[in-house]
Structure formats: structure tokens, C-alpha cells
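Input (structure):
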């Protein structure tokens, strides 16, 4: 079975950038096959971080009305009534992914009516697909989640190898990370790990270590001017030379690959 990772963190901490860089590094590693990157955050844009051009259309799975109706037997937007709770989803990743450099991107989308816990055709498809990706697929699956990860569902989260919380030295980021940690523990996620991002020195590192002294810290990523420069140029960070990423990111990838062996 491949490695299954969920990435969470307060908005603005660099969660999506870190997810995209980890995905690209994992995809080129000799120990892994293709990587499936899941954009499960409604306000994320994982496609840009992976270098998928804006002119390539990406329809979120939750908005594939015809497919949802075909697989569940019910029209999207309806609630109640009868529809299948175990729809066929095994072909969806290969049919609807966009790929670049060994990373396949799948955008989940959100259920726009009834809330995250509603019983409706759209949520049924999304839950079944997430379960398939985590339990059945043998690729590396890395999921860019919302700040809260409770919508993973207990059946799915119990089989996730690790929840990675991206945190900045700022107080609000650290508070949010502690809340996400509690959610992960409630969902019985096996390992909950921390990446310190945008650290500017030993003082920032010490602050994060002290705040999460009972947790395993994967590493610290320095503030990177390449990120803001790439955003200005409209390209993914380290677009032409991924080897230029900080060594700490490469070390984090090695640690993640060791999770299955431990």
C-alpha cells in the first residue's frame, strides 16, 4: 500500500505550497510511484503550486452532475429519497486527474447545500472516493485539507499514515495547529506531525518546539523569497530546478518515506 498523508493548517501558513512541493519531491523519488495530490480545500489552489496551466479546465468532482447522477441514481442537489451509498468510484482518479511531472491532481470540490455532514449524492461520491484513495490505491496520496480535518471521516482517517500540520511561529497559527491536532487525535489518526514553515531563525524554531514539545516535528522550512517571486511571475515555486528547494524539505521527504517501514 502507498503512503497516505493529510496536510492541514491555518489559512495563510503556506499549507498548499508545502503540499505541492512535497508532492513533487515524492513523485521523483525512486522509492515511490506516481503521486496523487488531492485538493480538498475549497479555498486552495493546488493546481498553481503544481504548475498546471490555468487554461486547463478542472471541474471539481462534486460538480460533475451527470457522473454523480449516474453513479448514485439521484440528481445532485437533492436530499432524502433513495440512492446508492456505495457508488462506483475506482475509475474516477484516472479519468479526471490532470498530471504534471508524475503528480496527478484531483480536485474534490465541496457540497454546497446541507453542510459537510449531509446525506446527499454529492457527499456520498466524495466520501466513497476518499475512502477508495486511502484504502485501495497503492500510490502515494497527499491531501491538502481544510483547516479542520474532521470531514475525512472516521473510516478514512483511521487509515491515514500521518496528519501533517503546517504551522508558522505566529500565535494564531500555533493556536489553530493545536486545535487541528485535537481533531486528528479524536479521529484516531496514527501519527500527527508538525512542519514549521517560514521560520527566520533559531528563536522561531525554539518557539515552535516549545509549543509542540509532545509532538514529532518533521523539520523547519525557512522563509523563501522564491515563493513570492514565483507568485509574481505566475509560475510554481522552483519551477525549473526542484533541486534548489531547502535541504530541510528533502530531509522531510526521507522521513515521510520511512513511515511505512516503521
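Output (sequence):
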Amino acid at each position: 500500500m502507498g503512503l497516505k498523508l493529510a496536510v492541514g493548517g491555518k489559512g495563510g501558513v503556506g499549507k498548499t505550497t508545502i503540499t505541492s512541493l512535497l508532492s513533487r519531491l515524492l513523485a521523483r523519488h525512486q522509492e515511490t510511484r506516481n503521486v496523487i495530490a488531492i485538493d480538498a480545500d475549497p479555498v486552495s489552489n493546488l493546481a498553481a503550486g503544481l504548475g498546471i496551466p490555468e487554461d486547463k479546465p478542472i471541474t471539481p468532482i462534486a460538480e460533475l452532475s451527470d457522473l454523480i447522477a449516474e453513479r448514485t441514481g439521484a440528481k445532485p442537489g437533492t436530499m432524502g429519497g433513495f440512492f446508492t451509498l456505495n457508488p462506483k468510484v475506482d475509475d474516477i482518479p484516472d479519468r479526471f486527474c490532470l498530471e504534471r511531472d508524475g503528480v496527478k491532481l484531483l480536485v474534490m470540490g465541496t457540497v454546497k447545500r446541507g453542510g459537510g455532514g449531509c446525506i446527499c449524492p454529492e457527499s456520498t461520491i466524495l466520501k466513497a472516493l476518499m475512502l477508495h484513495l486511502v484504502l485501495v490505491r497503492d500510490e502515494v496520496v497527499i491531501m491538502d485539507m481544510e483547516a479542520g480535518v474532521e470531514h475525512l471521516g472516521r473510516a478514512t482517517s483511521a487509515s491515514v499514515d500521518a496528519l501533517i500540520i503546517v504551522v508558522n511561529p505566529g500565535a494564531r497559527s500555533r493556536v489553530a495547529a493545536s486545535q487541528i491536532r485535537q481533531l486528528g487525535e479524536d479521529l484516531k489518526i496514527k501519527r500527527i506531525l508538525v512542519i514549521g514553515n517560514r521560520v527566520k531563525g533559531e528563536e522561531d524554531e525554539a518557539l515552535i518546539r516549545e509549543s509542540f514539545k509532545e509532538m514529532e516535528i518533521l523539520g523547519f522550512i525557512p522563509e523563501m523569497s522564491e515563493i513570492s517571486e514565483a507568485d509574481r511571475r505566475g509560475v510554481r515555486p522552483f519551477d525549473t530546478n526542484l533541486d534548489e528547494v531547502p535541504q530541510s524539505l528533502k530531509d522531510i521527504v526521507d522521513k515521510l518515506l520511512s513511515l511505512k517501514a516503521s
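Notes: The chain has one domain: 4-257. The mean pLDDT is 89.
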